[in-house]
Amino acid sequence: MDATSAALLAGFAGLLTGALAVVAVRYSERQQTRMPPTTPVTPLPSGVADVLAVLRSSAIVVDSADEVINNSPSATAYGLVKGRELVHGELRHLARQVRRDGVIRESQLELARGPLGQGRSIMQARVAPLGSSHVLLLVEDHTQARRVEEVRRDFVANVSHELKTPVGGLGLLAEAIQDAKDDPEAVERFASRMQVESHRLAQLVKEIVDLSRLQVADTLHEPRLVDVTAAVREAIDYSRVGADAKQIEIAEACAPDLKVFGDEDLLVTAVRNLIGNAVAYSDPGTRVAVGGRLADEMVEITVADQGQGIPAAEQGRIFERFYRVDDARSRATGGTGLGLAIVKHICANHGGDVDVWSEEGRGSTFTIRLPAASDRTPQRASETPPAHAVPSRKREPSA
């Protein structure tokens, strides 16, 4: 073989080798970029989705990669799920623990309500394995239950504190009278103070009992048709003495024929508490306006004063038990901090509510809203028969 043929053969062999090398590299690259075979996802057991839809708890099902594959609408509403992802790392950690050891776990978690702010929610989570590759999370919101428990503890503590004050005062005044038994003027002065403290103690005990009864009775046992206008006027008459002592005018403007179903005594108490507060926190010589009207099938009762007003930061708490905006002034006026809490519970028991508008320096307006009684509402056996069933009597003219 001559030199030329050998050179050509070597060149061809080199070209072939290079081509094979390029093909091998391309094949290798394709093999590297090809997606690895995925493990088939085990479908959810039959009927799981239907069960999740009727559960009261927020239900979430995640797969082996912590991806949400099914959840109830409430889970999204509470901000637990966003798209196909668990929002909170605490829930993901629980799911991984259950997936690892297969043991059902329960935990109470304090979760952020959103990406901004300091709001927290108390969530009770129960996490369990579901089949071979899924985990079920059942989450319930216990925030309100925790708050109720805290309010109950505060209530007990506040009752103890509030009762100690007048009881201790009575004890000190009794000792003062004993030491001043030879001084008639001192005895008279201390006895007068004892009357004030005993009245305050009696009022406090009465309001605690009233509030406890209202909290136990979530609904009225025997609602009757109540004339709201008459109830408002009775509450005004009860408050007239205190208003006259401060030269405060009580102006009344109620529409006729305002009717609700409920307890007349409780409604009088609610309006009386609002008027009493308005008189107590208003300056002498001012005016308190009490009105009533029908608006959108609701009876609205308003009590407006020209007092000092309530700071905006305090308005959300004034209906809490024993809460006082100005503690020193409340004690000076004989307030117990329970009046507005009683109003709130009376309104709730009648299917209504109460709210407040107030501005410092311009006074306050409290508004009670109650469902109006429909003329077509069936009559109860305990109610007075209609006029056509009882012979009418003409009222004798007064002498």
Structure report:
The structure is a single chain. It is built from ten helices and 14 strands. The chain is an alpha+beta fold. The chain has a five-stranded antiparallel sheet with strand order 2-1-7-6-5, with helices on both faces. The chain has a five-stranded mixed sheet with strand order 9-11-12-14-13, covered by helices on one side. It has a two-stranded antiparallel sheet with strand order 3-4. The longest helix is centred in the middle third of the chain and has 37 residues.
Shape: elongated
Main sheet characteristics: 5 strands, antiparallel
Distance between the termini: 155 Å
Mean of residue pLDDT values: 77
| Low-pLDDT sequence parts | 35-39, 328-333, 376-399
Please state the structural category: alpha+beta
| DSSP, total strands | 14
Tally of individual helices: 10
Percent helix among the residues? 40-55%
Q: Major sheet: order of its strands? A: 2-1-7-6-5
Please state roughly what percent of the residues sit in beta strands, choosing from under 5%, 5-15%, 15-25%, 25-35%, 35-45% or over 45%.
15-25%
Cα-atom radius of gyration:
37 Å
The SSE order reads: HHEEHEEHEEEHHEHEEHEEHHEE
